[in-house]
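R.M. (postdoc): so does anyone remember the format we settled on? I'll just put the structure tokens first.
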């Protein structure tokens, strides 16, 4: 069973149980054994190892519902082992990995391989399967088989499902197998060959732009399918003002939709790619200041349900090339929490709301364990020092890749202890 562990004198934030107070958190046998306002009774915690929290936040383990771990097929960029090390260092106790591996996670065998590789990982790994065979958007993958293997959701992330009938069938059959359908919202006929946000800056740089409507048209279509079928839908990496408005209106009309955004979409604008900075090249691309403001507002009012990193590791081979040729994506597991804590300091989110969008809601949306400090729940816990100041450097990075536009940034707030079923996976 192991020695009991007492996290003493922290600010316990557990939205699932409406808790936000100073207290002690007791862990025994890998589960939550007690949440005590003030101090735990001495007789209750006798013999426990004590970790002084000293006012730091004690929250349910953070859950990232959108990462790329690259294994199988591109282990030179990332592996399940290195990706989950980075996750633990960022305060995450669970990640959901996208299916655009090589081969794609479109079958029982690939899903089983991922789960086998994750057996001794530093975070829980929830495989997300493909909607279509080989991510081609032509025929449905075997959703039932993948679900029985352990897949928790399906998406063709990295590619949209252009065929509306196929997307409809995915929603209908996916729900029958208790699989969430995740939309990569992109109209390829509008975005094809684009490399950054369409606008004056793209014109000045001589680069082909991706208009915001390339995202919004597909958001509208998938919301229409969700309304028509009555099935749930999750929209990934929301980046534009109009997408936020569409989702807000759909929710008001009773549509069963949830949505996520990423820290780079509420922190950076398209200006970050000036001087052809491939570290800030991604898809969907960074947008305008107005879009950033809308993303922040959507997180604050509940339109956007989750913050996910879209952690996308690439080696120098894919990034240190001409902008047109550079791969899309940035790493994010180790910068997500400090960038998100900036929203708390700015008054955009409360600490409680931050925990909701980074832990409670991802667990609920995916239908997985976590997101709570309830008695008897698995002891996945993150201790956060919201005041810790630091400069993010390459030396901080546990990922195999270094493709981050935030290297050299001064940041505030980070995870200082990560527990997976009561076991320390990271301690700062």
């Amino acid at each position: 069973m192991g020695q009991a562990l007492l996290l003493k004198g922290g600010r316990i934030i557990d939205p699932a149980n409406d808790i936000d107070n100073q207290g002690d958190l007791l862990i025994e046998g890998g589960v939550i054994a007690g949440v005590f306002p003030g101090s735990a009774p001495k007789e209750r915690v006798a013999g426990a190892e004590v970790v002084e929290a000293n006012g730091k936040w004690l929250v349910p383990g953070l859950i990232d519902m959108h990462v790329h771990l690259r294994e199988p097929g591109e282990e030179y960029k990332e592996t399940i082992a290195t990706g989950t090390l980075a996750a633990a260092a960022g305060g995450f106790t669970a990640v959901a990995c996208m299916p655009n591996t090589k081969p794609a996670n479109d079958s029982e065998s690939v899903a089983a391989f991922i789960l086998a590789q994750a057996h001794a990982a530093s975070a829980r790994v929830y495989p997300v399967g493909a909607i279509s065979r080989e991510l081609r958007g032509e025929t449905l993958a075997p959703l039932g088989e993948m679900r029985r293997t352990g897949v928790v959701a399906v998406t063709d992330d990295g590619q949209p499902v252009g065929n509306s009938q196929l997307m409809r069938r995915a929603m209908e059959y996916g729900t029958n197998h208790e699989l969430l359908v995740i939309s990569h919202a992109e109209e390829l006929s509008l975005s094809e060959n684009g490399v950054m946000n369409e606008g004056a800056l793209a014109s000045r740089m001589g680069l082909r732009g991706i208009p915001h409507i390339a995202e919004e048209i597909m958001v509208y279509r998938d919301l229409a399918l969700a309304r028509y079928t009555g099935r749930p839908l999750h929209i990934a990496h929301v980046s534009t003002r109009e997408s936020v408005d569409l989702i807000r209106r759909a929710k008001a009309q009773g549509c069963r939709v949830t949505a996520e955004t990423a820290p780079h979409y509420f922190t950076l604008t398209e200006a970050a790619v000036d001087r052809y900075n491939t570290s800030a090249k991604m898809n969907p691309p960074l947008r305008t200041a107005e879009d950033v403001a809308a993303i922040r507002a959507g997180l604050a009012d509940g339109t956007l349900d989750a913050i996910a990193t879209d952690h996308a590791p690439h080696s120098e081979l894919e990034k240190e090339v001409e902008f047109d040729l550079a791969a899309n994506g940035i790493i994010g597991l180790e910068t997500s929490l400090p960038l998100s804590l900036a929203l708390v300091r700015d008054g955009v989110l409360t600490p409680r709301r931050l925990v909701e969008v980074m832990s409670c809601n991802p667990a609920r949306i995916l239908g997985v364990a976590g997101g709570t400090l309830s008695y008897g729940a698995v002891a996945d816990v993150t201790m956060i020092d919201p005041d810790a100041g630091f400069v993010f450097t390459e030396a901080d990075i546990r990922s195999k890749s270094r493709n981050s536009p935030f290297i050299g940034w001064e940041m505030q707030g980070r995870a200082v202890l990560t527990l997976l079923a009561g076991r320390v996976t990271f301690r700062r």
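R.M.: ...and that's the designed sequence above, right after the tokens. Also worth knowing: The CA atoms of residues 12 and 58 lie 5 Å apart. The mean pLDDT is 97.
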